[in-house]
Amino acid sequence: MHRHDASAEVLTQAVVRYAIDRIQLDPAPLDGPRTPDELRAMAGNTVTPGGIGGLEALRVFGDVLAPACISVDHPRFLAFVPAAPTEASILFDLVVGASSVYAGSWLEGGGAVFAENEALRWIADLAGMPSQAGGAFVSGGTAGNLSALIAARWKWRHDSDGANDRTRGLVIASSGAHSSIVQAGLAMDVDVVSVPADEAGRLHGAALRTTIDELAEPDRVRLFAVVATSGTTNAGMIDDLAGVADVCEERSLWLHVDGAYGGAGLAAPSVRSLFDGIERADSFIVDPHKWLFAPFDCCALLYREPRVARAAHTQRAAYLEVLQDDDDWNPSDYAHHLSRRARGLPLWFSLATHGTDAYAEAVETTLRVAHSGADLIRTSEHCELVLEPELSVVVFRRTGWDAERYREWSDEQLAAQEAFVVPTSWRGETVLRYCIVNPLTTVDDIAMVIDSLR
Ligand SMILES: Cc1ncc(COP(=O)(O)O)c(C=O)c1O
């Protein structure tokens, strides 16, 4: 199974050729989902005692399975949060897979961890975090938020000298925060209290202060962290980070900033000032697999004081003792994980290849297209903006349409392989939303979508 013989060489060439061809599709087809029954009928039995052979498995993947996955990197994949990995980052993802690096510890993966930390440093510098800031790449924003909040709770309990060791904690987040915050609360058995956001879905310092003041005293004692969002998923709005940071400082609360989607905007000079205050965060995440052109799965998790995260997350076991050298940077110590692939390397390679200026320009390009699309909506007769966009999410309505009509239109667009845009809701109303993270998405692509809504 592990020997590289002539037939393995044929398979190697075929698999690498497949990968190269997929990278070079311009664009890849949108494709679309199929039911398990359809796939069973089309793919046949693939996992068998004798194996079906690599070439046949590759054929099944290429002919049947891959077309049943929507291409998130298609320029008119505008739903949820798309992805648009650079060619360099995708190629290096292949190298990471081929290299068998264990990137949980410095002892085993130091070279890879060094490069990952270079990429983390770029992000920390964009955010203005201090020189000691650091962390690790985790699988996604959900894992990053959970790990950051675990570190925050550890500090709260540690600072209380054991008084809070059995106290259920409490976190405050805005009503615009991502669902993964409530999910982290469930996983940690922590309450999450929601602060009313403004009409655009932003959290402000004043509202946060009022919510804290209105907590019953026993609840205020349980409060250990505030989550602000720098780029809400539904509307792309950035919370009043400086105002929130003031309150956190005043009340000695951990400030976690969730920039999973919008944190990439730090690289764009045109919107950088919207993030002012982020430099005061105790922890911060951004997902390069969203708007920083890296493949899944890649979330950069940064701490102002990494030693706190290390105290919270380091796993202790006899067989791991050899790894616990205080001077070593073990990524496994900074999140809720142990074994990990060097998932930051594709980002690092692409950054090293293209330079950080290219990243700034690519983020600016997506912002320009998102905002030009908003102009088209503003001047159209059949659509109107629900909100003035801040980043690259645009929320709008087709006047006169209800939820069912939006759904039908969305299904028709995908079936015709035109675009993938899905409805969302805003203050109880079904509306449309597009999110652009792909520098290959053009204003013409958005015009096509808007025209199809007539
Ligand atoms: C603001 C925000 N936080 C967290 C997440 C969760 O990220 P992931 O899907 O990588 O777990 C998302 C996903 O869209 C997000 O937009």
Please outline the helices and strands.
Blueprint: H1 6-24, H2 36-43, H3 54-65, H4 87-99, H5 106-127, E1 134-138, H6 141-159, E2 170-174, H7 179-188, E3 191-195, H8 205-214, H9 217-222, E4 223-229, H10 241-250, E5 254-258, E6 283-286, H11 288-291, E7 299-303, H12 306-313, H13 345-354, H14 356-379, E8 383-385, E9 393-398, H15 403-415, E10 423-426, E11 429-435, H16 443-451
Parallel strand pairs: 2-3, 2-4, 4-5, 5-6
Antiparallel strand pairs: 1-7, 6-7, 8-9, 9-11, 10-11
Helix pairs in contact: 1-3, 4-13, 5-13, 6-7, 6-12, 8-10, 14-16
Count of folded domains: 3
Beta-strand residue fraction: 5-15%
The overall average pLDDT, rounded, is: 97
Widest β-sheet, arrangement of strands: 1-7-6-5-4-2-3
Q: Could you estimate the helical fraction of the residues in percent?
A: 40-55%
Return the string of H and E elements: HHHHHEHEHEHHEHEEHEHHHEEHEEH
Biggest sheet architecture = 7 strands, mixed
Poorly predicted ranges (pLDDT <50, ≥5 residues)?
Answer: none
Q: What is the CATH topology of the largest domain?
A: Aspartate Aminotransferase, domain 2
Shape: globular
Write up this protein.
This protein has 454 residues and is α/β, with parallel strands linked by helices. It folds into three domains: 1-30 and 33-67, no CATH class; 93-354, Aspartate Aminotransferase, domain 2 (3-Layer(aba) Sandwich); 356-451, Aspartate Aminotransferase, domain 1 (Alpha-Beta Complex). Helix content is 43%, strand content 12%. The chain contains 16 helices and eleven strands. The protein has helices at residues 6-24, 36-43, 54-65, 87-99, 106-127, 141-159, 179-188, 205-214, 217-222, 241-250, 288-291, 306-313, 345-354, 356-379, 403-415, 443-451; strands spanning 134-138, 170-174, 191-195, 223-229, 254-258, 283-286, 299-303, 383-385, 393-398, 423-426, 429-435. It has a seven-stranded mixed β-sheet with strand order 1-7-6-5-4-2-3, sandwiched between helices. A four-stranded antiparallel β-sheet has the order 8-9-11-10. A hairpin with a 2-residue loop joins strand 10 and strand 11 (429-435). Helix 1 packs parallel to helix 3 (54-65), helix 4 crosses helix 13 (345-354) and helix 6 packs across helix 12. Bound molecules: pyridoxal-5'-phosphate. Residues 81, 140-142, 178, 180, 229, 233, 258, 260-261, 287, 299 line the site of pyridoxal-5'-phosphate (PLP).
